[in-house]
Automatic annotation (TrEMBL):
PANTHER family: VACUOLAR PROTEIN SORTING-ASSOCIATED PROTEIN 53 HOMOLOG, VACUOLAR SORTING PROTEIN 53. Residues 143-221 form the Vps53 C-terminal domain. It holds the Pfam family VPS53_C. One of its GO terms (cellular component) is cytosol. This is Vps53 C-terminal domain-containing protein. One of its GO terms (biological process) is retrograde transport, endosome to Golgi. Signal peptide: none annotated.
Length: 332
């Protein structure tokens, strides 16, 4: 039903624009420039994005039970590494029962949008879920690493499930990058105690002392042993950065830290934030902001599909950038 709403709203968006053009042709020329359906088209664009985000949230909700099941696995007492865990099978089953219908009903443009937002949510959520587990033994970490690689494979197979093979290559890169964070975390847990600090700094350079302490707890170290390692860690990490974490659910209104824009076209001005550091950095950020706004404005008010594709072209280019205000659309 939600896919039908998306397709109907797209049709109405395009038809209302064509209606305005046809009316402008048959009325007096002095009034033709006053015929404007842009506000109506914007409403239909908002319906499309709201519907797509509802699809993403719906699938996210189905993962709740599997995320809880992951934390309840006795990771500290596993005796050997076997096949992928049952919660991974659950995630695969959910996607197998959901994605084919979406792939058959949504256009490639909107299916791509759905995939990007799902990956932007599930990857960080899986990473944070590792911290919710209790003690993880070496065998448990090896099993969880196997599970992580299995989840990554499941996500990479979604386009095939939806029978849409024209998905942008950036989707695979995005999934790999997000899931590699969970793999890095597990490799830190697997590292020997005497090298855990250096491994953490090397694999998770944006980690915080608080997260590092949680990793020591996951390894099962006693408080006294943790304190000595933490003191050495803090001594060698005076300026460690705080990480940015994508929320599991997008807020209804885009802000400077929103992970998902709530209007496909044009890009809302509040989604762009200037850097508050130094005056020179501020000038550069403002220049970037004006550049993004200018390109977003160039999307125009044409057909929904065309405008949405051009919007995605900008967002795909922004994903691989490590800085810039537009990058904040993909990081919280």
């Amino acid at each position: 039903m939600i896919c039908y709403i998306v397709n109907t709203a797209e049709y109405c968006h395009q038809t209302s624009g064509e209606l305005a053009e046809n009316v402008a042709k048959i009325i007096s020329s002095q009034f033709s420039d006053k015929v404007d359906m842009s506000d109506v088209q914007d409403e239909f664009s908002a319906v499309i994005t709201k519907a797509l985000m509802t699809l993403v949230h719906g699938v996210e909700t189905k993962f709740d039970a599997e995320m809880v099941a992951m934390t309840r696995v006795p990771w500290s007492t596993l005796e050997s590494v076997g096949d992928q865990s049952e919660y991974v099978n659950g995630i695969s089953s959910i996607l197998s029962s959901t994605v084919p219908a979406l792939g058959s009903l949504l256009s490639p443009t909107y299916f791509q949008y759905f995939l990007d937002k799902l990956a932007a949510s599930l990857g960080p959520r899986f990473y944070l879920n590792i911290y919710k587990c209790k003690h993880i033994s070496e065998t448990g970490a090896q099993q969880m690493l196997l599970d992580t690689q299995a989840v990554k494979t499941v996500l990479l197979d979604i386009p095939a499930l939806g029978k849409q093979t024209t998905v942008a290559a950036s989707y695979s890169k995005f999934v790999t990058r997000e899931m590699s964070k969970a793999e890095a975390l597990l490799k830190v847990i697997l590292s020997p105690v005497d090298s855990v600090a250096s491994t953490y700094r090397a694999l998770l350079p944006e980690g915080t002392p608080l997260e590092f302490q949680r990793i020591l707890e996951l390894k099962g170290l006693k408080k006294a042993d943790q304190q000595a390692i933490l003191e050495d860690f803090n001594k060698h990490s005076p300026s460690i950065k705080h990480p940015t974490i994508t929320p599991t659910a997008a807020p209804p209104v885009p802000t400077a830290t929103a992970s998902v824009p709530m209007a496909p076209v044009p890009l809302p001005t509040q989604a762009v934030a200037a850097s508050p550091s130094m005056s020179t950095a501020l000038t550069g950020a403002l220049a970037n902001r004006e550049d993004v706004l200018a390109r977003a404005a160039a999307l125009g008010r044409g057909a929904a599909t065309t405008g949405f594709k051009r919007f995605l072209a900008l967002t795909e280019a922004a994903k691989d950038r490590k800085d810039g205000p537009f990058r904040k659309l993909f990081n919280a």
